[in-house]
Structures are given as structure tokens and as C-alpha cells.
Amino acid sequence: xxxxxxxxxxxxxxxxxxxxxxxxxxxxxxxxxxxxxxxxxxxxxxxxxxxxxxxxxxxxxxxxxxxxxxxxxxxxxxxxxxxxxxxxxxxxxxxxxxxxxxxxxxxxxxxxxxxxxxxxxxxxxxxxxxxxxxxxxxxxxxxxxxxxxxxxxxxxxxxxxxxxxxxxxxxxxxxxxxxxxxxxxxxxxxxxxxxxxxxxxxxxxxxxxxxxxxxxxxxxxxxxxxxxxxxxxxxxxxxxxxxxxxxxxxxxxxxxxxxxxxxxxxxxxxxxxxxxxxxxxxxxxxxxxxxxxxxxxxxxxxxxxxxxxxxxxxxxxxxxxxxxxxxxxxxxxxxxxxxxxxxxxxxxxxxxxxxxxxxxxxxxxxxxxxxxxxxxxxxxxxxxxxxxxxxxxxxxxxxxxxxxxxxxxxxxxxxxxxxxxxxxxxxxxxxxxxxxxxxxxxxxxxxxxxxxxxxxxxxxxxxxxxxxxxxxxxxxxxxxxxxxxxxxxxxxxxxxxxxxxxxxxxxxxxxxxxxxxxxxxxxxxxxxxxxxxxxxxxxxxxxxxxxxxxxxxx
Length: 554
Prior knowledge:
The protein is mainly α and 554 residues long. 48% of the residues lie in helices and 2% in strands. A two-stranded antiparallel sheet has the order 1-2. Strands 3-4 form a two-stranded antiparallel ribbon. Strands 5-6 form a two-stranded antiparallel ribbon. Residues 55-71 have low confidence and may be disordered.
């Protein structure tokens, strides 16, 4: 039986690694060891906190692409957009978010990306600054109240344009946002029962909801601020709003929502719609299923539905859609650590394929690679490393066009049944995934351009020999057995069996030579600082580990 009963005792290394990989883009040995010594309450509480951003907005430094009279590359509220600068500024918003995700020791950015997938928009919708506001709103609400976040998303400037909410008025109805509000953002459609009749709502409900959403207008100058969050948003324009009551179907108990009589009451009317939808038990279930597939596993059996989804949905509703109590219950559970059955095979640990985002950022953070400074190496930080290196090659060529979801439903690997995370692997993405180790070890672009451009720097490089010497990954790097074992223990989600270990140890690392040869060469390196004979087997080992099927999962 799947169980939400809390796991008892210290987490230990394997379970701590699993928890950290699933909740955080920053994965380090030091953090694993810290969590491993904790009990599950302490470890989960450590991660379920919004770690302070290093900055509350992109770095205000001189940008070579910005006119001399401007001191920041984020368009200030009320500022005039220079379309010629939009592309470099967009690069910097993307690079800023990726850098914050890489440095985040908590769940904040993983949850922010979950909500970007859930409440999807596109960075091209308006401009870089309004998309920055959208990301800021997601972060503000990602560990808060789900109902409140969805309500505020109605007036988000990027969302208003992305789903045509800014065009929805009493004289020109547009049902696009209302349709996605039901189908994607809240209750879900469910199987179709008849013409215009779905399990959880009807086409008439979409029409009525679209009337509630009339009159919301974007303020692209970003001069209207939400009083609670301080984040720029759109506003309510009563002259464009459909007046009168809105009557919903029996799916919503034939609820009648009183019409607003002024702009202030438009907020009251919106709250009434949100409360009506969130009062339905299926809204909580739909949200929890999405959380489960994102953090735990893609296969929801009837047992999982009954023993995991339903009680977590009850917890969500009991806590008025506060997100943290439900997440805490899930991450503390025996089920999350696959400790609730007798099978020796882990279905959960190592049971998801890592997205290119986890693959890239967790690899970079594990090896402690130094990132170019955004202050002293601004262009190298944003353009060379984060945009050309990470965004274009590690993510884009691996089928994750970050912040450019191909569909209103987001990225297919998170929602498209039955493949789900297996969609990260395809004939077009597999090369980029397997070139990641080469990119890190050579510091070159490797793929995605001409032979000349592929030899260009990505702004970082993993110097594997000094890393093994200084990182503390193993207590005695001269001992080949423990060196290989420690690397496998931290880099792979599950412990490998003897045959698999011997493959990495004997065939890959030692290349059939006796263990004493490695010990001799390592000691020779320490005395002469000549890396040649130790660099080759170390790079061979790292490449093979990162090529392995186990490394592609988490």
C-alpha cells in the first residue's frame, strides 16, 4: 500500500541525494551530507524555504548593449522600450534567472519553474521586463497560496497578452483565457460526456467565466503595482466589463455570481469565481496530480490515486490551498523515498528522466565550476556562458526552449501521457545531452554551429584533476576503488550492483591496468604537478558516468 506515513530516522546519503535532486537545481556533496545527517522533518524544512535572492532585480551594471545614459538593463516602470535593445535585455533576464536557480539552495526555483509550466506564458509575449514581473510573481506565490497566485495571474501583464485577456471586453468577448483557466490552471476538463459537456465544466461555464474576465487590461508601462506584492500588473476597466449576474452549471451547483457595479467590485466578482472553482474537490486533485508527476513519478495508479493523491488533495483543501503543508507531507512520506513496499527495485528514486535544466545545473553545481562574474565579466556571464552555453546548447539543443513553451499547456514532457519525462529523449535531443560532459571538460561549445564556432568558449571549464584533488569528493584520491565508488555514489541516483561497478572501475577507469598504476600516477602528479597521466582516465570516467542511463535519471 502506498503510504504518506512519515519516514523515520536520519535520511542517509541515498535518500538525502534523492530529496535534493528532486527539489533543487543546486546539487552539491556538502548539501547532501548536511541533509543526510538530519531527520526528515529537519531536511524538508531546510528546503521548503524561499532562500533570499542575491538581488531583487537584475544587476544594475553598465551593459555594452545599453546606451551610456542608462544604468540598468531592466526597463524601469514608465520607461520607453527601445526595441533594438530587447534581445540583449531578454538574454540577461534569462541569464539572471538561471544564475539564481543555480545558486538557490532551496526549492524556490524548482517550484517557480513548476508554476511556469502550470501557468505558462512566453518571454516574447510583450517584453523582457513584463516577463521578469511574471517570474517574480511566480516566485512570490510558489510556496504561498495557490488560490491567491491564480487570482493574481489574471491581471499579470504577460498573461493578459499571452491568452488574449487584454482583448476580452463586453463588446468583443474572447474566451481564450477562461478556457485555459478551467482546463489548465484549475479544475481540469475530465472526459467529455456530451457536446459541450465535460466531466468538470461545460462550454456554457467557459462563456460565463469569460464575462467575469472582461475588462482586465494590461499596463505595459508597468506603472500599476499590485498593493500586496508590489509587482507591476494590469488593471480593471469597468467600462469594458460585462455587467449583470453570471450563472454557472450544475457542475458548480448552479452558482450565481453577482455582477460588479464598478471597477472595485470587479475584484470581488473575480474572487467569487475563484472561490467557486476552488471549492470543487477536483481542483485540488488536479493540482496534486501535477505536483506528483513533477516531483515523484509519472505513473498514477488507482492505488496512488487513493492513497496519495486523495489525502494530499484533502490536506490542500483543509489548509485553504496553502501549498507548503501539502508539500511537507509529500516530501516526508515513506512513499517519496520508496520505503512503502517490499520490492527491491526502486520505482521512484531514479524513476524520472532529468530535464535538460536539472541535467545542466545540477552538473555545474556538483563540480563547483566557477561562473564568470556578472559584475567584472558582465558579457561573459550573461551572453557567453548563460545564453550561448547553457540556454542555447545545454537546454535548447536538448529540446528545452526555456521560457518559450511550445504550447499553452507548457512543455510536453510534463503533461503529455503516457511518455511524460521520456520525451526529453529523442533523436534531436540525445546528442546535446551526451555532449554535456564534453562541453564542461573542454569549456567549448562543441555543438550547434560551425566547426569554428563550436570551438569557441562557453565561459567556464571543469578542470577535473584539481577538482578531484581539492573538492573532498573522496578522502584519498590515490585509492582508485574509493575514488570511483564515491563518484558513483554521489553522481548516480541509486547504488550500482557489483557488475556495473566493475564496469566503471576496471574497464573505464583503470582500462584493464592494475590499481597500483593509478596510485603511482596520482602520487607522481602530486609531486610534479604534471596532470597528463591522471587527466585522461579521470575524464574518461566522468564522460562514461555522464553518458550512463543512470545519470540521465533522478
